[in-house]
Amino acid sequence: MPDSELARRWLARSGITQTGESAWWDADPPAGPLTAGDVSDTMGWLVFDDEDLDPADRVRVALGLMDLLGAHPLLAGQIHMAHLGPQGPLPLDVLWDGYRRRLEAVRDHEACPSSLWLDWFEDPRTAAPAFAAVLGSDRHLLLPGVPEPLVRRARRVLEHSGPVGWDVKAQTCRAAARVPALHHAVFRAVLRSYHDLYGDLDPGQGLALLDGLDLPPDTEHLAALRRVLADGHRHHYASPQAWDAAPDR
Fold first, then answer.
1. Spatial CA neighbour of 76 closest among 29, 109, 33
2. From CA 237, how far away is CA 1, in angstroms rounded?
3. Residue 249, pLDDT score
4. Integer CA distances (angstroms), 133 to 91, 117, 140, 154, in order
């Protein structure tokens, strides 16, 4: 059974059913319509307290709610908090297989990379293992001719990897640079490493990586990024004036 259907049935047990796109109905008194945000606010924090679900199904329901309801801090945040809390660690095979499948899908599951960025990657306790689970451990597969699902996964992870430490992701970025379809995603990974509040970057390594990418010369922010890295700057917030002074073309 798909995770989304498992989540739908879990909501139905509480009298909540879907009536249209982003439209829901709560049959419990006082009965009335709900938005996806209302459902998230009401039910998003209850999954990991449901003793009728085993640990694996709690993860599946939580991921399924993200599929049904979209990005919402209660939906994504509860998974991360449960993993670090007394109920954790969560079943890693179910958790990361669920993330990888969504990252590889043709459909854009925006809640998935968003939750990686805001929950897993911004927390130093989980950034490295989460990055390894969703991409880093598969970097040896990033070669020319790589299947499109892995290209999609790599692109989405790299573009949201700003908070991940450079030492954690540098080898994966170099591996991704072997795949022309990922060159822009590698550029975004370097750019966001420089700008993200929690990011960090080795200027020399970052510049060497940019030198190997086939990017249009007028790529937005490419010239500015090359200039600040050539000048030895590691992070935007350490010297914001450097970025302001750098040419953008």
1. 109
2. 46
3. 56
4. 13, 14, 13, 12
Asked if 14 and 47 touch (Cβ cutoff 8 Å), the reply is no
| pLDDT attached to residue 74 | 80
Question: What's the one-letter identity of residue 80?
Answer: H
Cβ atoms of residues 164 and 123 within 8 Å: no
Least Cα distance to 41 among 20, 67, 70 occurs for 70
Q: Mean pLDDT in runs of 10 for the chain (249 residues)?
A: 94 91 85 88 89 96 94 86 94 98 94 94 97 98 97 98 97 98 98 93 96 94 94 86 76
The predicted pLDDT at position 196 comes to 93
What lies within 8 Å, CB to CB, of 80 at 6+ separation is 115, 119, 120, 123, 126
Coil/strand/helix, residue 179: coil
State in Å, rounded, how far the first CA of the chain is from the last one. Answer: 51
**Closest of 34, 2, 6 to residue 18, by C-alpha:** 34
Q: Mind spelling out the 3-state secondary structure of 205-249?
A: HHHHHHHCCCCCCCCCCHHHHHHHHHCCCCCHHHCHHHHHHCCCC
pLDDT of res. 171: 98
- Which long-range contacts (C-beta less than 8 Å, at least 24 apart) are formed by 12-20? 14/43, 16/42, 16/43, 18/68
**Cα–chain center distance at 111:** 8
